[in-house]
Amino acid sequence: MNQEKHNPKVASMLSIIPGLGQIYNRRFLKGTIFFLLFFAFIMTFYQFLNIGYWGLFTLGEVPRLDDSRVLLAQGIISLIITGFALTFYVLNLMDAYKDAVKLQKGYRPNSLREGFKDGWDKSFPYLLVGPGLFLLVFVVVFPLLFMVFLAFTDYNLYNSPPRNLLNWVGLDNFTSLLTVPIWRSTFLSVLSWTIIWTLVATTLQIALALILAIFVNDPRIKFKKIIRTVLILPWAVPGFVTILIFAALFNNDFGAINRDILIPLFGQAIPWMTDPFWAKIALIGIQVWLGFPFVFAIFTGILQSISKDWYEAADMDGASSWQKFRNITFPHIMFATAPLLIMQYAGNFNNFNIIYLFNQGGPAVRGQNAGGTDILISWVYNLTFETQNYNMAAAISIIIGLVIATFAFYQFRRTRSFKEEM
């Protein structure tokens, strides 16, 4: 065959049926394997994909016979399988085109042994990450997609399969959060408290950790190891144990804080569990106690890595303690820990454990379907497992994901450590 007449476009066109382009390029074994894989895929998944896409668009037609949840799950799996198939299909087209270009330029096709060796060298990393990718798709991506699709349906306690069929409702669930009075008031109240909770609790725990780390790192402080050990102890105790202990301490009736401290000193107890304001104060205090030891340990390591020569040079220039903190200590700490601190904010935004274990998001608030201390994630939990408002819970979950992703991406882009990695 004349090498100059070997046309890459012809190879690409033939590869519309996988394998034919490779055969045209005289890669007979590869072409045969590609064609057999293509044929096996059609024979194996045709019926599954057919039902999957039908179910995804219709969500069933006969109540009690068609389960919309199963059809939705099969439709999502069909989308994932189609995504893998399209990836393979595009790679098949690119492979045929690239081989044709090489042949046109006079390259000799690899022998069978060379082809296997070359393929093994190129595919070995993908073989290593393949099982992890497979698990990621079906353990993380599939449930996430299922949740996203539920947000556009009418799946709730009163319209539950298989007795009823689900219907696509578009953006109705999202508009209900802003137009229906009970949903609007609850959503705005919970969202505002979630933002306040995230900013105040996280900022306080970081500030406390920074102050303690600076004080303990001062050369005049003795017994540093003992002090650091004591300050890190709250981190060593399991979080749920600490939260349950604090829930008992803050109990209105028998809690030690009211019984042994406030009543003897001031003659009055504080309704920690029944008043939303005081419950929020208690939660912020507990989170500061739980969160500062970890940040303290990080800051302590950073402070010990800062060269003492810089502080000596600053002393020679007559710098004050505040100037040394502002120009040496603080920039170094933020540069090294900014991504980690951002994740502290993101973690507290979704800190379900402390809200649920302390008082299950209570107390109840009139005119709302969420508790006085519920944050978005605990509200989603209640909507899912207590009132079975799956569609609204899914819609709120999407909003949570978008808020966290936007905030984290924006802050990461602004940090110097991220920019230097780029």
TrEMBL record:
It is a multi-pass membrane protein. Its main location: membrane. One of its GO terms (cellular component) is maltose transport complex. Coiled coil: none annotated. Keywords: Cell membrane, Membrane, Sugar transport, Transmembrane, Transmembrane helix, Transport. Part of the ABC transporter complex MalEFGK involved in maltose/maltodextrin import. Probably responsible for the translocation of the substrate across the membrane. This is Maltose/maltodextrin transport system permease protein. It comes from Anaerobacillus alkalilacustris. The lineage of its organism: Bacteria, Bacillati, Bacillota, Bacilli, Bacillales.
